């Protein structure tokens, strides 16, 4: 499995995700600078990492979405290649039009860093095949703008097409506003593209792969990607 | 030299914070009237914040050496050896005045400044901590200051990409007009690749890097060297504005440029900006510096030499580069989109020359600017120590558990989750122990080593007895590191006091420093960096003396680290250390009875050492399943915190005969720990304790869902937890 992590000025979880991939999958990703125009030959998975690209002084992800490397990322996605955007990466994917909707300021108007519970909505995607539908996993979030919003038609379509992969729930997997910390529409934590090859999510599975620092519920996420690529 | 505009008058001199005799001293030093720019430069170099003129003579008494100390005080940060070719670089610094004037930016730039201090030395920051003191919760400004400061600390650290993993938050009416924001940063460097400010070589390029220079923060250091009056709002323009994005780029560019071998000397532009950094680089290297301000990248048109020299715009660095590597260095900075400009050169003259628009704006002897700064042996008064209180004379509560419930829901002892959830404490993926425990534990590289870190001080102890309070701050730091299983290595101190020109304040300072020195010597815990913040007062009312101590310790094997949460039912709960019963200056006395009275608990440093070393051996033998140091609130608060963290209850035994129950449960005697252990391990533990000469007392057993005390109505752990978690969100009016 060959992966590429895109580094924008202001990215700051690129090392976290690169380490998680190395630990879980066993191969180190290439780090690709935002000003490059091509992905390394043979790239299977492109990762847009967390952080504050360009300081996020404009709308989060808005400038990064127009970086030189993004044309190659878009082409990779259009060919059916896997693209994963985590946190700021999710925001960038929305700004780039690779995913619908937008991430607004958290409903409580504060940055929030804590563990959350995610319900895995389906297991037949490249990002979730090592989980079972209905599994509840524990992973952290760390963001100020993770409140997913889209127009009613888009939400209806996402729901209808089964493109919501993760939702914030109680530890028992129940929908409950008290566990939906950022106030996201329908408790949406992660969504897929139509072809299921592009995923954006706010939480950080890459920070929960190592028993030394916490639970390891995030491992299944990277194992899923590996097994999907091997099966392909 | 151009003629002076404006003219130098006594009023202008006073407006620069220089006393008449200080000005005369400067005039005599240069043998003429200074230019306006020179007046600005000297005011920046000789203010309290930069020159430590009131504190230096006392700071020299602190122990700063140990075999593992690579760099003690005097550089951007302290450096200690942590083995395997690695060094830990750390420091704490205050941003009190700016944070009171403009909480978000003041706190944010405090974090930015301390991070720069650490990466200037070649270290990649791995963690931040902070120590915050706010006014009474009832004061009308407190809530907005808490909101602003916490958002500012998070806003900077979260974006920069360093986990904020620990600290403390306290409230007291004595901070109503002057809050404290002390920020600490910890980084890791290769031991043989530490970078210093000392310039070497003549004719080498002096290079300006980072963000452009603007008109923000002019006179920030002078502002930080005066007390507040009623018009502190008007000082808002002296507060800088932070840009964590630029700082993140500056970090990556600096570390890359250092790896490439381009750098001879490096100094960040912090307080007093370009002035302080250029003078320090030259003075430390016995060299002159010739600056041409026409080359300085500026944010606005028409900035004067005076403004450029005093600007405290953030995210800027000054470097002396190897001439043959200049192009390579420039390419690295251009890649990261940062400004890079050669603004001067080193000279053999030991003069600090500033040119602008073809004129010489300043021409000063560089060594004297630093070394000849005034140094004061200020008069100090012996503190008015409070007498010890007899615990038996203090009324006992109707219900011990109800008193506990109130204590753990009080502003000082309640959960600070609302605060630290706004800090990214998980980024970088090395946070082994998260906020909320005795000390944070951060993995080094891929392990098995880890660093433990904490900040501590009990200001009301320091107020009642500055010497014992100074000792206690160090001892508590040492205990907190010990409690997670770390070997305490060194500290950084952030000494926050009122106006040193008042003998009673100077007395607090002198005695706190003596206490810190004695404790650090006894515990082999040297001071390697620090910061002094004086003039923390408003309209003549000083803050509580607050010598914050930031400590770092090392774990050789992080798998042996323990935290404070109960682990399972049926385990023994033990007190290691004396039974105690000291209620003077306790949280119980202050919170339940509304009295801040008596002498604080004395610190027996030999007992601290003995007990702490024992705890570390017990942890090393994997005999303890949870450990918690005893401090604010005493024994019962500590046990409640251990229960809350686990959601497991405990059945406690009655207190010993001869000690009033409330003194036993809420006394704040030092050199003590509460631990849990499997029952089968008790004989081993007791043997080791006996050998070390430490007392052990059985307190009860873990288990169930409630906390029970003989003769009292039990309380559910879930109730305690709800109470513990509720105060701050309710006060702030928003959920965590």
Quick rundown:
With 232 residues, chain A is α/β, with parallel strands linked by helices. Chain A is built from five helices and eleven strands, in the order E-H-E-E-H-E-H-E-E-E-E-H-E-E-E-H. Chain A has helices at 14-25, 70-78, 88-95, 152-160, 219-231, and strands at 3-7, 30-33, 45-48, 82-86, 102-104, 112-120, 136-143, 147-149, 164-169, 188-192, 198-201.
Keywords:
heterodimer, A: 232 residues, alpha/beta, 9-stranded mixed beta sheet, 5 helices, 11 strands, globular, B: 736 residues, alpha+beta, 7-stranded mixed beta sheet, 25 helices
Describe what you observe in this structure:
- The complex is a heterodimer of chains A (232) and B (736).
- Chain A contains five helices and eleven strands.
- By secondary structure, chain A is an alpha/beta fold.
- A nine-stranded mixed beta sheet of chain A has the order 2-1-3-4-11-10-9-6-7, with helices on both faces. A two-stranded antiparallel ribbon of chain A has the order 5-8.
- The longest helix of chain A has 13 residues.
- Chain A starts with a strand and ends with a helix.
- The model of chain A has no long low-confidence stretch (mean pLDDT 97).
- With 736 residues, chain B is α+β, with helices and mostly antiparallel strands.
- Chain B contains 25 helices and 28 strands.
- In chain B, the strands form five sheets. In chain B, strands 8-10-7-11-9-12-13 form a seven-stranded mixed beta sheet.
- In chain B, helix 22 crosses helix 25.
- Chain B starts with 9 loop residues before the first helix and ends with a helix.
- The chains are: A alpha/beta (232), B alpha+beta (736).
- The interface between A and B is medium-sized, with 32 and 34 residues.
